[in-house]
Design a protein that fits this description.
5-stranded parallel beta sheet; Rossmann fold; alpha/beta; elongated
């Protein structure tokens, strides 16, 4: 069966919908049929029976299936593998749980929605994912995630300085965004001396309102050009926002920046797996103490068990000091305790970090070529560690988090 090969004059987008649900079929016909600019092809039946359809000229494929049916999920896996990165696949399902979410994350479908699906949300989702890149060489966002193994390990300092390095990693600056995901005790805005503007409470009742325009309103801008997504602190309020709201936000951020840096809270939320799975680099930050190393090793093992073939966690020892005649832990002790996951140690320079935080500026502005920045550059930008920040490589490829929803 060949679908979507002919292109009707005036049609700007073609949506291919696979469904065995008569009610959903009527909904999509009513939703997309009213527009002369959208071509609609409906393939009736279960995906397991129709997975060989041709979708070469489609702008988006909408697959309505039973997430609890293993045969259907395997058919979806084969379909996504066959068509590759284009056209994007949007999954519609009524059966939805953590196991289904994990499978869809691993398949990297463009997005998924749970029935009943409001027509406007279906249209907006299809329109968003159907924006084809200008060329196959267009870049994906590179996502760097910092996760603390213990409290007070200095995760925010490393996240902020990493974002600054990435911002200046190419001539003319790259589009870089720092996202503070600690909605209770986040400190990114304080470290940069800017006002946090993210209001998740306003978005949560109607997450479909979150678009580029609203994101602009909720972005904070540092004088360096760094964009920051941060919410005002709520130390007396422990809230776990709807994971759909959080992942929509992260998807939007990832779609509009070359580099994204996540400052993660130590607490594990329902959306944490999604963020970790969507990361290109995942760093666990700890300190040079026996409890700190133990917690880091335990966290590495827990993440590997949860994420499977996802990004491999790497351990960074922050504020590392090794004095010649000190009785404290040495680098060899760290390597033995952590094993192959140990990737870097960041030297201690408390007075420099404190001054940078108090002034809301990057470390290099106070002391160019300081040891902390040098080590971070080796970790974050190994290809240009020996160059100046302005001589970095071109930004990475654009990457969406919509597939990593939990």
């Amino acid at each position: 069966m060949r679908i979507g090969r002919s292109v009707t004059p005036g049609v700007q987008a073609r949506v291919v919908v696979l469904t065995a649900d008569q009610g959903f079929e009527e909904q999509v016909r009513g939703t997309f049929g009213a527009s002369s600019q959208i071509g609609l092809d409906v393939v009736k039946g279960r995906l397991v029976e129709r997975e060989q359809i041709e979708v070469e000229s489609a702008s988006v494929v909408v697959a309505d299936l039973d997430g609890g049916d293993e045969a259907e999920m395997q058919a979806l896996e084969r379909l996504v593998a066959r068509i590759g990165s284009w056209p994007p696949v949007v999954v519609i399902t009524q059966v939805f749980d953590e196991a289904v979410a994990r499978r869809l994350m691993q398949m990297r479908v463009a997005d998924f929605l749970v029935k009943p699906v409001p027509p406007v949300e279906l249209v907006q989702t299809c329109a968003r994912v159907a924006k084809k890149p200008a060329s196959t060489d267009s870049a994906e966002a590179q996502i760097f995630t910092f996760l603390p193994a213990v409290g007070g390990a200095g995760v925010t300092t490393l996240a902020v300085q990493t974002a600054m390095l990435l911002l200046n990693s190419a001539p003319g600056k790259t589009a870089t965004c720092l996202v503070d995901l600690d909605f209770q005790h986040g400190a990114c805005a304080d470290y940069l001396d800017i006002e946090p503007r993210l209001n998740l409470g306003e978005i949560e009742p109607r997450p479909e309102r979150l678009d580029r325009q609203l994101l602009e309103v909720m972005l904070s801008q540092h004088a360096s050009g760094l964009a920051v997504v941060a919410a005002p602190n709520s130390p007396a309020e422990m809230r776990s926002f709807d994971p759909d709201v959080v992942t929509r936000l992260l998807d939007l951020v990832s779609s509009n920046f070359d580099y994204v840096v996540f400052d993660m809270p130590r607490t594990w939320f329902s959306w944490t797996d999604s963020v970790l799975l969507g990361s290109n680099k995942l760093f666990i930050v700890t300190e040079t103490t026996v409890p700190g190393l133990r917690h880091a090793k335990q966290l590495v093992e827990a993440i590997r068990e949860r994420l499977g073939d996802g990004p491999q966690p790497q351990v960074v020892i922050n504020r590392f000091e090794q004095k010649l005649f000190s009785a404290g832990l040495r680098r060899g002790d760290v390597e033995q305790a952590i094993g192959e996951a140990f990737v870097a140690s960041i030297p201690n320079h408390y007075s420099l970090v404190r001054e940078a935080i108090d002034r809301g500026v990057p470390l290099d502005e106070i002391k160019p070529g300081n040891k902390i920045t040098v080590q971070l550059r080796k970790l974050i930008l190994p290809q240009n560690a020996g160059k100046s920040a302005k001589d970095g490589a071109a930004p990475g490829r654009k990457f969406k988090l919509s597939w990593a929803r939990s």
